[in-house]
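G., the chain you wanted modeled:
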Amino acid sequence: MWDTNNDSKSNGGFDVHKPKPPSPGTRTLDLEPLGADTVMATAQQSAAPSVRRGVQPLRAGEGSSFLWHKLHSLLGIIPIGAFLLEHLLSNFEALKGPVAYGAQVKFLNGLPMVRLLEWVFIFLPILYHACYGVWIWLRGKSNIVYYPWAGNWLYVSQRYTGLIAFAYILQHVIRQRFMGIMLPEHPYYAFHKVQMELSNPWMVAVYIVAMIAICWHFAYGVWLFAAKWGITTGTTARKRFGYVCVALGLALAVMGLASIWAFVGPEYRNAPEEPVPAVSFFQPTHPVIGV
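Predicted structure as tokens:
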């Protein structure tokens, strides 16, 4: 409202103020409401935003996060899962005694380029899988207090079992691989080295808890892998495959616990430090004639 006259006019006891004239260049709309002479300024319409053709660029980290997440999921199956199966089968040889266990350790350390293989397909994948898993854990939220559903409890259990597994693997590799006597040069010492570590009851408890946590983590990881990669589609397929994963986890846990028993049980309690494998000599019945 603008006053077009600085002087006020009396109108029946009331002062009537007329509006000031609009500034030059302002669009006006003449309105005549009752009791006053007014003008109203209208807002100028802004120009329509221009729309660019093409694909919207990815947000920072959106595409790369998807790839890193997929790599984390894949490494949990190949090669880490494959190594877990091999390791449990190798440890199962302990049930046959120190010599059979040492022979298995010797065979593994005799593979071509074994040092390169263990770093590329064991140590580095486990390190990435563990570190990225912790990063996912820190960014996620379970909500088990407010939403105590099965999915949230499985999420929490997967994170804690993964943390237990990584802590156990870290100490196990350091103590068995890089401390004390070197098993690659003395493979038949392996049974005694593990047996000495398990002579402590607390370490036996650590091994048992870690074995159950690792088998659970792997079994549920297989179920998640099948669901995320589109192998099991639909609720029915995932439910049925869940039973398969539970059976797999239980079977692996039984194998692992049986291997632990081989080291602490009474059968091989007084095993020698470095047993000598039996050597069979072939004695021909007929004399060998040399040329």
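Confidence is low (pLDDT under 50) at residues 1-14, 31-43, 51-63, 281-291.

Shout if anything looks off.
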